[in-house]
C-alpha cells in the first residue's frame, strides 16, 4: 500500500494497473463508427427531401408548368402539357376512403373482440393469422383485387357499371391489407386501458358490452385514432394494389364542376392514383431530362408531405397515450 | 406464557363464529355458505361461511393473501370477470343464491356495489362519473338531483360543485376515492363492498372515508376489507379474521379486539404474526 | 332472478344483454371476415395456379418424326428446323448462337465469315454451340408451336372437367386438354419467355436472391450498428434524439419514395459507379442489382434498427454491470455480453425486415427493374428483375394464361416468405423459452 503511494508512475514495473486510458483510442473509433451508422438514417431523410425538392423545383421551373395550375387544374395530361394534380389526388382519396371504410370498422371490431372477449387461447390462434395477412406482399393483393374483387363487383353491380380497372376494388382490398395494422394498434390501445376501469364499470352493474364500448373504447380512443391515421397514411402511400387494379391513366375532368359531380367520386371508374402514376411513368427507360421524369418528383414531394404529416400526428397521439398510462 | 395459551386453545380449532354474529338481531343482507374459490389448482378460499348483517359494517381482516379480497369479490360476482376462477358454495342475497344459474351477475352488481382499493374514476367528467352507472341502469328520476345527492352523501359536493364538468382524474387521491363512493351510491345499492378503500390514502383522507362509512351505515350495509386493524376497530360492527383462506374467528368487533376466543386472533391483533 | 325492488331504476337487463350479445356477434364476425379474406385470397391463387388447359399445335409432333422428339439427336432436330422455318429466321437464330460448333446450318460459310469480320460481330461468332435440349426447345417454340388457347381454373376443372372436355372436343377438334400445374419444375428453372406456357421464374428468383443477399450485407451491420449507438452509446443528446425521431419517421415513408430516391441518387447521380462503368464492365445505365440493393437497404434500415433496439432494450442491466464490474471496456461489454444475449431478437427482427424486402415491388419498379429479362444476373452490375416485379408484369398482361403463371409465381413467393417467417417465429420461441 505504501509502495504504491510512493511509486505512482503507473505500469513501470508491470504490476501496477495502467489507468492512462491509452486503449480507449479503439473504443473511440468504435463509438464514431456506430454514430456514423446512425447518421446514415439522417442522410437518407435529407436525400429524400433534397431529391424530391430539387426535381420538383426543376419541374415548376419548366415553361409548361405553373404552381397555380398544378394545384387548381383538373387535368393531368403531360402529353399536352397539362399538369393539374387533382385527378391523381382524387383517385388517391377514393382508394384510401374505400380502404378506410373497410379497415376501420372491421379492424376496430376485431380489436375489441381480441382484447375484450377472446380467451388467451383464441387470441394466440387468431393473432398470428392476422400477422400473415399483414405479411402478404402488396403485389399479391393487387393480383387478388384484379382477379377476384373486380369480377365480384362486376357480378354484383353489373358489367356495364363497373370498369375492369376501378378504384373501389383496389380500395376494398387495400382495406384488408391495412386491417391487421389497425386491429393490432387498436388492440394494444385497448389492452393498455387499466383493468381497474373495467372493474369499476362491472361494479356499477354494467354489462360486458357496456364496459367494452362505453368505458374501455373511449379510454383508448386516442390510440384508435392513431391507428386510423397510420392506416390512412399507409393507404395513401400504397402503390402496387392501385398500380395493378385501379387504373392506368388519370381520370381527368374538364372542370371543377365535373370533378365534384357524382362522376368524380365514382368508385367503379378507372382512375390513376398519385402512387400509381409514379409507378407507371417510371417503368421502362424514362429519360432523365424529360418533364415526365421531373413531374413524378413533384407528385412524390406531395406524397411525402402528406404521409409525413399523418405520421407525425399519429405518433404524437401515441406518445401522449403512453405518458397518460405511465 | 404463549405456550400456555396455545395449550389451552389449539391453533387447529374450528372457526369460532359467535352465536350473536351468526344469528344476530337484524336481518341478514348477505349470507355466505361454505364458499370455496379456486384459481386453477390453488384454493384461495377454503369453505368460508359468513353471515353479513343489514345496516352494519362488517370488516374482513387478515394478512396479505389470506383470501379476504377474493371473498369480498365473491359477494358481487366480480370474480366472474377473471378467467380461470372457480367458485363453489352459496351466497344468499335476500334469500336467493346469487350463484344460481338463472342469476345474471350484472343484476347482482347493480344491487351490491363496490369500491376498489385504488380509486378508479372513469376518464370522464365528475358529473358523468356519477351519472354513468345510474344512466345505464335506467334511472328514471332527475339526474342532476341524483348526482348532487350522491356527491353530498359522499361528502364531496362542496369541494366539486363548481367544477362538475372537469375530469374526475383532476381530483386528489382522497377526493377520487370519495367520487368512486358517490358513483356507487348513485346506483342506490343495498350493499356496498369496499376493498381496502383507504389503503392508498394519507391519514386525513383516510379519516374522511371512515367518517363517511359511519354515516353511510345508516342506510347501507357495508362489507369492508382492510389491512389496518385500527380501522377495523374504529368503524366496524363485526369483524372476521381470515387466515390462509380459512375463517379463524367472526364476532362483534368489540369482542374480537378485547377478548378473542382464538389464539391466532390474539396473536394477529397484537402483531405477533406481522 | 334478482328482483329489482328499487323503483327509481329500470335496468331492462334482458334487453341490454341481448344488445350485448348482438354486438359480440358483430365483433366476432369482423374477426372472422378478416380470416375468411385470407382464406379466399389463398384459394383464389391456388385456383389459378392449377387447372385444365386446352392446347393446340401448329404441327403435331407425330407429323415431324415417327419417334418422340425428345429421343432425336441434334442433327435430326436441326433438320426439322430447316424444313419448317424460313431461311431468314434460321439465319437470325444462327447468328445469335450457332447450331454446330464445326458446321453451319442456315448460313453460307462465305457470308458467315464476312459477318463475323464486321466491327460488332453477332454473338454467334464467338459463343459455344446450342445444346440438344436448346434445339429441342426451339423446335417446340418455332415448329410445333404449341399454344394454350384456353385455360380453366382449378375449381372449374375439378367440378366440370367432363363438360369442358366435351365442349373442347366440339369446338377445337385438333386440340388436346391437359391438367396442368403451372407451378412445376420447369417453371422454377426456366427463364422469362413471351410464351406463358414456357416462361419461368429462374431469372426473377436469382435476381431476388442477389438483391436480398446484398441488402442483408449492407443493411444488417449498419442497422445493428445504429441500434447499438442509440441504445448503448447515445446519451440523451440533441443528435441522438434527432436520429431516433428520424428513424421513426423513415419507417412511415411510403416505399415508393425510396424508389424515387434510388432512381435519382443510385441509378442516376451515381450511375457511373452503379452501372459498373468505372470498372469498364456492366450495364449501360445505373439500373442494376447494386442500385436495387442499396435502395432496399435504405428501405429496411429503419425496420432493422427499431427491431434491434427492442432486442437490446431487453438485455438486463445486471449483465452490463457485471461486465463492467470485471473491468471490461464498453465495447468489450457490448461485443461479449450484450450482443450475444440480444442476437436472437436481432436476427428475428432482421428476418422479418428481409421478408418485407422480398415482397416489396414499388421501389424496385421505380429504380428500374427490367420488364423483360431472359439472362441470369451475373454480378453487381447486371440488369435485374425480382419475383414481385415478375408477378406484377404477368398480372398486368391481358392474356389469361399470364394470370396463371402470375399465380404460380405468387405461390413460389409466398412459400419463400412463409418459410422465412416460420423461421423467425421458431427462432423467437426457441430463445424466449430458454430464458
User: Per DSSP, what share of the residues of chain C sits in E-state strands of 2 or more residues?
Assistant: under 5%
Describe the global form of chain A: globular
Roughly how much helix do the residues of chain C carry, as a percent range?
55-70%
- CATH topology descriptor of the largest domain in chain C: MetI-like fold
| CATH topology annotation of chain A | MetI-like fold
CATH class of the largest domain in chain C: Mainly Alpha
* Estimated radius of gyration of chain C: 30 Å
Describe the structure.
The complex is a heterotrimer of chains A (326), B (274) and C (435). Chain A has 326 residues and is mainly α. Chain A has one domain (67-325): Orthogonal Bundle (MetI-like fold), CATH 1.10.3720. In chain A, 72% of the residues lie in helices and 1% in strands. Chain A has 14 helices and two strands; from the N terminus they run H-H-H-E-E-H-H-H-H-H-H-H-H-H-H-H. Chain A has a two-stranded antiparallel sheet. In chain A, a hairpin with a 4-residue loop joins strand 1 (76-77) and strand 2 (82-83). In chain A, helix 5 (120-135) packs antiparallel against helix 7 (167-192). Mean pLDDT of chain A is 88; it is low at 1-12. Chain B has 274 residues and is of the alpha/beta class. In chain B, the strands form two sheets. A seven-stranded mixed sheet of chain B has the order 1-11-10-4-9-8-7, with helices on both faces. Chain B has a four-stranded antiparallel sheet with strand order 3-2-5-6, covered by helices on one side. Residues 1-13 and 19-24 of chain B have low confidence and may be disordered. Chain B has one domain (2-24, 55-76, 107-269): Rossmann fold, CATH 3.40.50.300. In chain B, a hairpin with a 2-residue loop joins strand 10 (238-243) and strand 11 (246-252). Chain B starts with a helix and ends in a 5-residue tail after the last helix. Chain C is mostly helical. Chain C folds into two domains: 54-181, no CATH class; 202-434, MetI-like (MetI-like fold, Orthogonal Bundle), CATH 1.10.3720.10. Chain C is built from 19 helices and three strands. A three-stranded antiparallel sheet of chain C has the order 2-1-3, with helices on both faces. In chain C, helix 3 runs parallel beside helix 6 (132-144) and helix 14 crosses helix 16. The longest helix of chain C is centred in the first third of the chain and has 37 residues, at 13-49. Chain C starts with 12 loop residues before the first helix and ends with a helix. The mean pLDDT of chain C is 87.
Amino acid at each position: 500500500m505504501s509502495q504504491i503511494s510512493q511509486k505512482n508512475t503507473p505500469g513501470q514495473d508491470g504490476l501496477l494497473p495502467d489507468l492512462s486510458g491509452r486503449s480507449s483510442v479503439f473504443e473511440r473509433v468504435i463509438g464514431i463508427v456506430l454514430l456514423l451508422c446512425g447518421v446514415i438514417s439522417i442522410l437518407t431523410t435529407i436525400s429524400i427531401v433534397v431529391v424530391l425538392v430539387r426535381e420538383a423545383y426543376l419541374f415548376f421551373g419548366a415553361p409548361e408548368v405553373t404552381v397555380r395550375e398544378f394545384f387548381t387544374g383538373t387535368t393531368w395530361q403531360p402529353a399536352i402539357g397539362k399538369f393539374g394534380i387533382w385527378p391523381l389526388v382524387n383517385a388517391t382519396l377514393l382508394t384510401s376512403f374505400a380502404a378506410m371504410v373497410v379497415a376501420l370498422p372491421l379492424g376496430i371490431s376485431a380489436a375489441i373482440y381480441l382484447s375484450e372477449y377472446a380467451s388467451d387461447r383464441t387470441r394466440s390462434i387468431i393473432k398470428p393469422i392476422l400477422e400473415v395477412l399483414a405479411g402478404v406482399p402488396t403485389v399479391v393483393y393487387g393480383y387478388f383485387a384484379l382477379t377476384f374483387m373486380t369480377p365480384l363487383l362486376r357480378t354484383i353491380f353489373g358489367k356495364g357499371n363497373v370498369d375492369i380497372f376501378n378504384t373501389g376494388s383496389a380500395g376494398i382490398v387495400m382495406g384488408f391489407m391495412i386491417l391487421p395494422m389497425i386491429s393490432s394498434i387498436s388492440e394494444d390501445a385497448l389492452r393498455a386501458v387499466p383493468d381497474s376501469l373495467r372493474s369499476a364499470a362491472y361494479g356499477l352493474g354494467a354489462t360486458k358490452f357496456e364496459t367494452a364500448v362505453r368505458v374501455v373504447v373511449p379510454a383508448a380512443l386516442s390510440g384508435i385514432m392513431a391507428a386510423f391515421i397510420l392506416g390512412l397514411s399507409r393507404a395513401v402511400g400504397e402503390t402496387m394494389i392501385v398500380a395493378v387494379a385501379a387504373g392506368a391513366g388519370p381520370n381527368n375532368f374538364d372542370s371543377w364542376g365535373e370533378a365534384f359531380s357524382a362522376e368524380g367520386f365514382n368508385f367503379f371508374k378507372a382512375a390513376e392514383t398519385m402512387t400509381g402514376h409514379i409507378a407507371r411513368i417510371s417503368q421502362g427507360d424514362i429519360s432523365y431530362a424529360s418533364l415526365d421524369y421531373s413531374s413524378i418528383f413533384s407528385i412524390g414531394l406531395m406524397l411525402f408531405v402528406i404521409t409525413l404529416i399523418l405520421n407525425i400526428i399519429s405518433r404524437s397521439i401515441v406518445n401522449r397515450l403512453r405518458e397518460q398510462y405511465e | 406464557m404463549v405456550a400456555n395459551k396455545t395449550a389451552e386453545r389449539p391453533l387447529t380449532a374450528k372457526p369460532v363464529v359467535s352465536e350473536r354474529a351468526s344469528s344476530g338481531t337484524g336481518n341478514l343482507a348477505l349470507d355466505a355458505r361454505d364458499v370455496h374459490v379456486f384459481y386453477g389448482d390453488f384454493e384461495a378460499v377454503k369453505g368460508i361461511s359468513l353471515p353479513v348483517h343489514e345496516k352494519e359494517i362488517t370488516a374482513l381482516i387478515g394478512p396479505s393473501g389470506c383470501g379476504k379480497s377474493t371473498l369480498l369479490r365473491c359477494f358481487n360476482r366480480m370474480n366472474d370477470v377473471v378467467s380461470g376462477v372457480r367458485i363453489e358454495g352459496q351466497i344468499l342475497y335476500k334469500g336467493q343464491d346469487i350463484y344460481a344459474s338463472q342469476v345474471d351477475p350484472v343484476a347482482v352488481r347493480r344491487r351490491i356495489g363496490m369500491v376498489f382499493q385504488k380509486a378508479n374514476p372513469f376518464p370522464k367528467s365528475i358529473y358523468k362519473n356519477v351519472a354513468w352507472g345510474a344512466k345505464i341502469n335506467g334511472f328514471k328520476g332527475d339526474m342532476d338531483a341524483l348526482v348532487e345527492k350522491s356527491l353530498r352523501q359522499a361528502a364531496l359536493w362542496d369541494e366539486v360543485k363548481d367544477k362538475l364538468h372537469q375530469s374526475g382524474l383532476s381530483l386528489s387521491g382522497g377526493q377520487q376515492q370519495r367520487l368512486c363512493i358517490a358513483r356507487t351510491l348513485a346506483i342506490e345499492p343495498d350493499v356496498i363492498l369496499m376493498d381496502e378503500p383507504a389503503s392508498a390514502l394519507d391519514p386525513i383522507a383516510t379519516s374522511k372515508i371512515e367518517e363517511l362509512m359511519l354515516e353511510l351505515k345508516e342506510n347501507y350495509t357495508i362489507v369492508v376489507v382492510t389491512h389496518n386493524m385500527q380501522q377495523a376497530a374504529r368503524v366496524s360492527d363485526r369483524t372476521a379474521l381470515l387466515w390462509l383462506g380459512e375463517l379463524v374467528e367472526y364476532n362483534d368487533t368489540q369482542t374480537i379486539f378485547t377478548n378473542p376466543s382464538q389464539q391466532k386472533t390474539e396473536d394477529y391483533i397484537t402483531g405477533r404474526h406481522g | 332472478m334478482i328482483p329489482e325492488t328499487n323503483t327509481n331504476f329500470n335496468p331492462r337487463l334482458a334487453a341490454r344483454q341481448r344488445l350485448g350479445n348482438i354486438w359480440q356477434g358483430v365483433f366476432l364476425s369482423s374477426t372472422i371476415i378478416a380470416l375468411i379474406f385470407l382464406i379466399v385470397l389463398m384459394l383464389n391463387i391456388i385456383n389459378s395456379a392449377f387447372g385444365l388447359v386446352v392446347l393446340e399445335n401448329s404441327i403435331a409432333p407425330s407429323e415431324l418424326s415417327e419417334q418422340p422428339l425428345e429421343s432425336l439427336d441434334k442433327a435430326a432436330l436441326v433438320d426439322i428446323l430447316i424444313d419448317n422455318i424460313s431461311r431468314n429466321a434460321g439465319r437470325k437464330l444462327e447468328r445469335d448462337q450457332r447450331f454446330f460448333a464445326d458446321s453451319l446450318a442456315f448460313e453460307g460459310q462465305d457470308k458467315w465469315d464476312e459477318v463475323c469480320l464486321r466491327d460488332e460481330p453477332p454473338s454467334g461468332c464467338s459463343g459455344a454451340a446450342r445444346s440438344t435440349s436448346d434445339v429441342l426447345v426451339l423446335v417446340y417454340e418455332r415448329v410445333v408451336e404449341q399454344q394454350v388457347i384456353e385455360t380453366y381454373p382449378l375449381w372449374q376443372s375439378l367440378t366440370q372437367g367432363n363438360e369442358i372436355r366435351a365442349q373442347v372436343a366440339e369446338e377445337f377438334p385438333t386440340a388436346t386438354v391437359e391438367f396442368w400445374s403451372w407451378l412445376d419444375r420447369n417453371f422454377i428453372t426456366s427463364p422469362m419467355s413471351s410464351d406463358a406456357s414456357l416462361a419461368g421464374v429462374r431469372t426473377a428468383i436469382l435476381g431476388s436472391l442477389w438483391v436480398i443477399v446484398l441488402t442483408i450485407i449492407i443493411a444488417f451491420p449498419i442497422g445493428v450498428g445504429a441500434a447499438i449507438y442509440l441504445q448503448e452509446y447515445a446519451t440523451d443528446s440533441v443528435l441522438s434524439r434527432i436520429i431516433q425521431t428520424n428513424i421513426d419517421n423513415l419507417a412511415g415513408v411510403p416505399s415508393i419514395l425510396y424508389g424515387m430516391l434510388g432512381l435519382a441518387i443510385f441509378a442516376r447521380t451515381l450511375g457511373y459507379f452503379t452501372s459498373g462503368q468505372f470498372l469498364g464492365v456492366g450495364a449501360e445505365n445505373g439500373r442494376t442489382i447494386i442500385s436495387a440493393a442499396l435502395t432496399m437497404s435504405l428501405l429496411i434500415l429503419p425496420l432493422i434498427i427499431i427491431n434491434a433496439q427492442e432486442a437490446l432494450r431487453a438485455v438486463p442491466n445486471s449483465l452490463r454491470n457485471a461486465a463492467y464490474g470485471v473491468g471490461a471496456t464498453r465495447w468489450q461489454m457490448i461485443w461479449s455480453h450484450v450482443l450475444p444475449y440480444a442476437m436472437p431478437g436481432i436476427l428475428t427482427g432482421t428476418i422479418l425486415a428481409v421478408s418485407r424486402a422480398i415482397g416489396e415491388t414499388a421501389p424496385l419498379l421505380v429504380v428500374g427493374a427490367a420488364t423483360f429479362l431472359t439472362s441470369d444476373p451475373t454480378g453487381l452490375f447486371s440488369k435485374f428483375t425480382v419475383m414481385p416485379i415478375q408477378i406484377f408484369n404477368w398480372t398486368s398482361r391481358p392474356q389469361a394464361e399470364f394470370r396463371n403463371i402470375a399465380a404460380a409465381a405468387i405461390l413460389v413467393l409466398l412459400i419463400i416468405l412463409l418459410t422465412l417467417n416460420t423461421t423467425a417465429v421458431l427462432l423467437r420461441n426457441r430463445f424466449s423459452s430458454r430464458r
